[in-house]
Amino acid sequence: MRSGMAEDLKINDQLVVPDSELRERFSRSSGPGGQGVNTTDSRVELSFDVERSHSLSDEHRQRLLERLAHRLTGGVLTVAASEHRAQLSNREAARDRLAALLREALAPPPPPRRPTKMSKGAKQRRLQSKKHRSAIKQLRRGAHD
Questions:
Q1: Could you tell me if 37 and 11 are in contact, meaning their C-beta atoms sit under 8 angstroms apart?
Q2: Which helix (H) or strand (E) covers residue 66, if one does?
Q3: Could you give the CA distance from residue 9 to residue 6 in angstroms, rounded to a whole number?
Q4: Could you report how far apart the first and last alpha carbons of the chain are, in Å?
Q5: Is the pLDDT of residue 4 over 60?
Q6: Each residue of 48-83: pLDDT tens digit?
Q7: Bridge-partner residues for 76, per DSSP?
Q8: Which CB contacts under 8 angstroms, 24+ apart, belong to 56-64?
Q9: If you placed Cys at 37, which of 33, 41, 48, 122 could pair as Cys (CB 3.0 to 4.6 Å)?
Q10: Structural domain of 56
Q11: Which of 79, 80, 82 is nearest to 32 (CA)?
């Protein structure tokens, strides 16, 4: 199934997905491509089994399963690349895309927002501005009302 590029996929400083947990499938790309389009399997599908991976901690696995639930099929995350004519370029693009997806899903959630109160001075300025606008509009009405 593999030829040549047996290399682990580095997601971040803490996580590296071993090459043995990645599956590649090759097929023909659709669209124009000249004479070679019917003979070269340049489209690449890269799959990573999130549910059964040994390289993920329980915390990482849980976070990935929650955040990527809409992208998973049976616990497997699949990414396809067919934008390049060369299979090697599509393999690199698929690996980059998979790493970026996993990196984004593993990022810690943002800190919760602390609600803040409007200061008294800001309230007064806002009300003063509204009164001023109201007065201007009152003057526009004229005496014919």
A1: no
A2: helix 58-67
A3: 10
A4: 85
A5: no
A6: 998 888 888 898 899 989 999 998 889 899 999 988
A7: 49, 73
A8: 56/15, 60/15, 60/106, 63/105, 63/106, 64/102, 64/105, 64/106
A9: 33
A10: 9-106
A11: 82
